[in-house]
Design goal:
The protein has 241 residues and is of the alpha+beta class. The protein has helices at 2-12, 20-28, 43-55, 93-97, 114-121, 132-142, 148-155, 159-172, 182-194, 215-219, 236-239, and strands at residues 17-18, 36-40, 60-64, 68-73, 76-81, 101-104, 107-110, 125-126, 129-130, 203-204, 224-225. Among the domains are: 1-112, Beta Polymerase, domain 2 (2-Layer Sandwich), CATH 3.30.460; 203-239, no CATH class. The chain contains 11 helices and 11 strands. The protein is globular.
C-alpha cells in the first residue's frame, strides 16, 4: 500500500514529504515499528492527495479541516498532515523545499527535514503522548549540520518552547551541551530575562500542548483558550476535530 501510494504521489507530481517514524529513523538512526505512514503536504493539495488515494482503492477522508486527512487499507494507515492540531501553523512550501531525499520501500522520497521535524513535535505533550525524547534525539544527531537559525525562525513568537528543549537537552546530555550553538543560547536567555508578564487577556497556552490536560484552566479557572480566535486560529468547531 505504502509503495503504491508514494509512487502515485510521485507520478502525479504532488509535492509531499514523509515524516513520522520513518523520518525519525533516517535522521537519528532510531528505528521503531509503526503501522502508519505520515505524509506532509501543503493545505491546498491535501484534498487532491485524498482523491488520488481514493482512486487507488484506499478509503480516504478528511478528519479535521485544518490539519488532517486519513487513508486506510486493512490494518495500514496513512495520515495526510497539512497543519497542526492546535492551529498554530500549517505546512508551507519551505517544508517541502528543504526536504532531503531518502530511500523508503525501494523508492527515493523526500523526508521532512530535521528542523521541521523538531517544530512539528515540539507541541506534543499529551498525558500518554510526548515527543520530547524524539526532539532531543534529532538535536543530538543533527546538531552539527542543522540550520539553527531556520529552526529559531520556525518557532517565532513561541521561542520559549525552543529554550525549554535546549534546557532539557543539557539535562539529558550534560557532556554534550557544547553541541548547542552559544549564540542561540545567549539569544534565548536574553529574551527570557527581558520578558515580562503578558498584558491584556489572561490566556492559557497549555491547550497548545495538550488537547485535554488544560481544559480545567479554561472551563473552571476563567482563562482564555490560546487556540481560539482572537488569540489563535481555531474556532470552537475546529477545536473538537
Amino acid at each position: 500500500m505504502y509503495r503504491r501510494a508514494l509512487s502515485a504521489l510521485r507520478a502525479a507530481q504532488i509535492p509531499f514529504a514523509v515524516g513520522g517514524a520513518y523520518a525519525l529513523g533516517v535522521h537519528s538512526g532510531i528505528h521503531r515499528e509503526t503501522k502508519d505512514l505520515d505524509i506532509f503536504t501543503v493545505p491546498r493539495r491535501a484534498r487532491e492527495v485524498l482523491t488520488l488515494f481514493s482512486e487507488l482503492g484506499f478509503p480516504s477522508q478528511m478528519v479535521a479541516r485544518h490539519w488532517l486527512g486519513k487513508v486506510t487499507w486493512e490494518d495500514a494507515v496513512i495520515d495526510i498532515i497539512f497543519g497542526f492540531r492546535n492551529g498554530i501553523s500549517q505546512v508551507d512550501e519551505s517544508w517541502l523545499d528543504h526536504a532531503p531525499e531518502a530511500p523508503l520501500f525501494d523508492l527515493s522520497v523526500p523526508i521532512v527535514a530535521v528542523e521541521e521535524m523538531i517544530w512539528s513535535k515540539a507541541f506534543v505533550m499529551e498525558r500518554h503522548r510526548y515527543d520530547g525524547a524524539d526532539i532531543l534525539h534529532l538535536m543530538r544527531a543533527g546538531a552539527a549540520t542543522m540550520d539553527w537559525k531556520r529552526l529559531l525562525g520556525r518557532f517565532g513568537s513561541f521561542w520559549p518552547m525552543l529554550l525549554h528543549y535546549l534546557v532539557l537537552y543539557s539535562f539529558v546530555y550534560p557532556s554534550e551541551r557544547s553541541r548547542i550553538p552559544d549564540w542561540l543560547v545567549r539569544d534565548l536567555t536574553t529574551r527570557w530575562h527581558q520578558m515580562g508578564d503578558a498584558t491584556g487577556a489572561e490566556i492559557c497556552r497549555g491547550t497548545l500542548l495538550s488537547h485535554v490536560q488544560y481544559l480545567h484552566d479554561v472551563t473552571h479557572d476563567g482563562l482564555r483558550d490560546a487556540r481560539l480566535q482572537p488569540f489563535g486560529q481555531l474556532t470552537p468547531e475546529n477545536v473538537d476535530e
